[in-house]
Write a structure and sequence with these properties.
alpha+beta, 2 domains, 2-methylcitrate dehydratase PrpD, six-stranded mixed beta sheet, 60s Ribosomal Protein L30, Chain: A, 16 helices, 8 strands
């Protein structure tokens, strides 16, 4: 692929759009971001909040610890954090500069301020609207389809911003250029200087939170459990470090991560195993960069058909991405990577997403294992064939099959998961 090709520029832009830093689980952070913007538009500290969110936002915020809150969980906590201490200009790092005094003020705000949460069934899987009130004044912010896509801003009923909601990925670079063959071609020809900044940040941030997860106690300590007694086994190490990053992130660690497809867990899953493999096998920095291009873009390609939020666990796609990146480091190109992806999705496409919480780390360990297994199958001359379950003939047809399953086939599953979670 030449630098002058249209797809070259699109691939670069996709990486820049997807590989963004975020502090904490991205759904509660999106609520904090909306609340911070509502407070800024209102111009004063609100006396009441109305929070209207889609079911998938409820699912992904209910159980996860919001960073820089002293261990608070849930939608009201995320909104309180953004209202009291959020920096709206920082977007997904909205809570990155919180002080101890502000953490104390969040608790006071939650005690004294009426906060109503409503389930908004608008037809959008990702939908957040926060209205802040102070006396007769009000300000509302609406975010739809992805975490920073502000589509409406109003003050006292006056429209300050209104964007037409066209498609789920409206405002992002067209992803239709993505294919496994194109990704492999791009990874081999890209000028690494064009991707250095985003990939160096991903390596720094995501390895730091993985190390933190192994160093201290977070959640169910899945990373430590996977690694115990197998510290010198590279396959277990790749699984453990990725899981440990999620252990920390889901349970209040205040370190940032670089996300993929709107998710920090997916960003960790598709990058950390590839980094571990490259370091353990003595690969160069350039080889690692090119492999990370593969892992990140394969993850994004799979997630494009699925959507940002679904009943289909996002770690599955990221585990496929990790397997593809490791295959690239082993010298594999299109054929090996295509078979790795097909084999991996055939193994663990049944994992459901029941929200962000401690058990995500265990799902990540399983997803990375599937990626490694899918690669090992190819190396041993084994594969799944078209007609084996959801597997179709050809990697792109299989990816499309997964997208249909996740986006359409699991809609009722998603609704039932949300109902079950709201009962508890």
């Amino acid at each position: 692929m030449n630098r002058s090709d249209a797809c070259y520029g699109q691939y670069i832009q996709i990486l820049r759009e997807e590989l963004k830093p975020a502090m904490g689980c991205t759904e509660p952070i999106a609520i904090a971001y909306a609340a911070a913007k509502a407070r800024a538009v209102l111009g004063t500290m609100p006396k009441r909040l109305l929070i209207e969110v889609s079911g998938n936002i409820i699912k992904n915020v209910k159980s996860v610890v919001v960073p820089h809150t002293g261990g608070l969980r849930g939608i009201p906590a995320a909104a309180a954090a953004g209202t009291v201490a959020g920096d709206a200009d920082a977007e997904l790092e909205v809570l990155s500069r919180v002080t101890a005094e502000e953490i104390a003020a969040m608790g006071e705000f939650l005690q004294k301020t009426p906060i109503e949460v409503r389930h908004a069934d608008t037809g959008h899987i990702f939908d957040i609207m926060i209205t802040a009130y102070h006396g007769a004044d009000s300000a509302s912010i609406r975010i739809v389809d992805y975490h920073t896509n502000v589509v409406s801003v109003k003050r006292n009923g006056e429209v300050l911003l209104e964007k037409e909601i066209v498609t789920q990925e409206d405002g992002l670079t067209d992803r239709s250029c993505l294919s496994i063959e194109g990704i492999v071609d791009f990874a081999g020809s890209v000028d690494v200087e064009d991707v250095r900044e985003v990939l160096e940040r991903q390596i720094e941030y995501n390895m730091a939170i993985a190390e933190e997860g192994l160093r201290h106690s977070y959640g169910a300590n899945i990373g430590k459990t996977v690694l115990r007694g197998r510290e010198n086994d590279i396959n277990y190490k790749m699984r453990a470090w990725a899981a440990a990053g999620s252990d920390a992130r889901m349970n209040g660690c205040e370190l940032p991560v670089v996300i993929n497809s709107g998710s920090g867990n997916q960003g960790i899953t598709c990058s950390v195993p590839v980094i571990i493999y490259a370091r353990e096998t003595g690969k160069t920095q350039e080889e690692l960069f090119r492999a990370l291009v593969v892992s990140n873009l394969v993850t994004t390609h799979l997630k494009t058909g699925i959507g940002r939020l679904s009943a289909y666990c996002g770690a599955v796609s990221a585990g496929c991405g990790a397997g593809a990146g490791i295959a690239y480091l082993k010298g594999g190109r299109f054929e090996m990577i295509a078979h790795t992806v097909v084999n991996a999705v055939a193994v663990d496409s049944g994992i459901v997403c029941d929200g962000a919480k401690a058990s995500c780390a265990a799902k990540i360990a399983a997803a990375v294992d599937a990626g490694i297994l899918g690669l090992a199958m190819y190396e041993d001359g084994n594969q799944f064939f078209g007609g084996d379950g959801i597997v179709k003939c050809g990697v792109e047809n299989t990816i499309a099959s997964v997208g249909r399953l996740a986006r359409f086939g699991m809609q009722q599953t998603d609704k039932e998961i949300i109902r079950l979670m709201m009962e508890s």
